[in-house]
Fold:
Amino acid sequence: MTERRVHIKPAPGRLLISEPSLTDFYFKQSVILLAEHNEEGSFGLIVNKPIQARLNEVTKDFPDFDAQIFLGGPVKTDSIFYIHTVGEFIQNSIKIMDGLYWGGDIHSIKEMMILRQLTPKEIRFFIGYAGWGSHQLDRELKEKSWVVSTTKADQVIHANPRLMWGNLMRSFGDEYAVWANFPPDPSMN
Structure:
C-alpha cells in the first residue's frame, strides 16, 4: 500500500497529505499528487476533492465525455489540468511515475474521446493546481503541514477520492489513525 516514513522526501509521484491543522479551503484534509519538485519549486494536483460539475459543464471545448472534475488547487483556477494512464498514446505527456502522466497534447486527448479510445477511468481533470515557490514546500514540511507518502498509479487514479485522506491516515499506523476520524470542521464535533 502506501509508505510513510520521516525520511521520505517530496518528489514527482509522491503524495502530500495535509495535517489536520491545515484549515485552508483548498488544503483542509487534502491529498496532493506531486507532478514536479525541484529547486525552482513544486507543482501538484489535489486528487481527493471532486466538485459537483462534469467536464462538459465547465468547458465547451471538449467532446461529450462524462468525466468528473476535481478541485486541483488555488493557482490558475481558470485553467484545466489533467493526469492520465495513457501517456504512451498522448504526445508530450510527462511521466509522473510508472503508469501515470500529466499533461500532453490536448488535441490527441480530444480525438481519443471522440473515438472512444479513452475512458473517464483513465483520465482525471482538475481546475487549478497547487504550487510552491523555491524551497516553500520544504519550509511547510518543516512546519509539519504535510506528511509525504509513496503511492502507485492505481491508488491515485482509481481510489475513492472522498475516502482517500482518511484511508491514508489509517495506513500510517496508530500514530496517524486518529486523524482519520478528525472532522473537517472541529466545531461540528
